User: Which sequence fits this backbone?
């Protein structure tokens, strides 16, 4: 995947967040990370993306990408919650 450079506003492209979520999902699947650690990282991603999406000054083209990454992170959060029961 080609990485977008930081924009003039200093924000990373949504692909960085998608890669982070996918990396955690793969690490859990290959048992190279503890479920508790994965849950903590995903929680931080959800909180960060939620704050970014809620920013009224965020341009729409970034907001839609971040919303997609947020949706994926929330899905992974739910998946991890089921696995830890």
Assistant:
């Amino acid at each position: 995947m080609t990485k977008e450079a930081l924009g003039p506003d200093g924000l990373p492209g949504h692909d960085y967040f998608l890669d982070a979520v996918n990396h955690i999902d793969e690490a859990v699947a290959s048992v190279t990370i503890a479920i508790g650690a994965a849950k903590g990282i995903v929680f931080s991603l959800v909180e960060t993306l939620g704050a970014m999406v809620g920013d009224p000054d965020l341009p729409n083209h970034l907001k839609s990408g971040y919303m997609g990454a947020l949706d994926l992170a929330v899905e992974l959060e739910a998946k991890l919650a089921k696995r830890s029961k």
